[in-house]
Amino acid sequence: MSQSLHADPATDPATHTATLVLAALADPSRRALFEAVRRSDHALGRDELAEQAGLARATAAFHLDRLVDVGALTVEFERRSGRTGPGAGRPAKLYSLANDELTASVPARQYVLAGDMLAEAAEYSDSTGVPVRDALVQTAEVRGHELGSDQVPLVDTLVGIGYAPVACDGGYRLTNCPFHRLAARHTDLICTANTAFVRGLTDESAEPREVWLEPTEGECCVRIGGAHP
């Protein structure tokens, strides 16, 4: 991370861009489009995004262009037919995430949730003598069970918490860690607790899945496998 720790928020370009992006994402339609782009492992066109977000194509186009203007998304043009030259038609306008730290940090970081779990684990450890690490893992899994639901698709629960899931091999890669800063400082402890938390979420869903720890550069350390038969 090359940005100075003492950058002036009033003049720092990255801070200014982040403010614009967060303001744009306050609109539910833009947020839905942004989440649809982030969940995909390839660039998407307006028609696909409009359908996923439940918007008219013209409305989606307006909001997508706004997200490009503020730096949340980037645009590329591609002829999906594979043909070139006269008669090949106009290239499609495709949208993908801007490739910088900004869009990776857009999801809400769940530090309040993490703080609650840490405090609860500390109290449990003090009262029972259970090691703090074990207490945190137990607390995290219980909290996952509390927040999970078989009435909500698992992918929606993961998106709501900030994991930015992407379908992969029948399961999900989690492309954002809601506890990133804590995990960077206390990797083993937080990632183990995070795995237990996600396991609790999936156990309560209508599609229980295997969950395991698989550290991956630039992503959450947790992986989710295919649904159990």
UniProtKB/TrEMBL annotation:
<protein>
    <submittedName>
        <fullName>Helix-turn-helix domain-containing protein</fullName>
    </submittedName>
</protein>
<dbReference type="InterPro" id="IPR011991">
    <property type="entry name" value="ArsR-like_HTH"/>
</dbReference>
<feature type="domain" description="HTH arsR-type">
    <location>
        <begin position="20"/>
        <end position="111"/>
    </location>
</feature>
<dbReference type="Pfam" id="PF12840">
    <property type="entry name" value="HTH_20"/>
</dbReference>
<dbReference type="InterPro" id="IPR036390">
    <property type="entry name" value="WH_DNA-bd_sf"/>
</dbReference>
<dbReference type="InterPro" id="IPR001845">
    <property type="entry name" value="HTH_ArsR_DNA-bd_dom"/>
</dbReference>
<dbReference type="GO" id="GO:0003700">
    <property type="term" value="F:DNA-binding transcription factor activity"/>
</dbReference>
<dbReference type="InterPro" id="IPR036388">
    <property type="entry name" value="WH-like_DNA-bd_sf"/>
</dbReference>
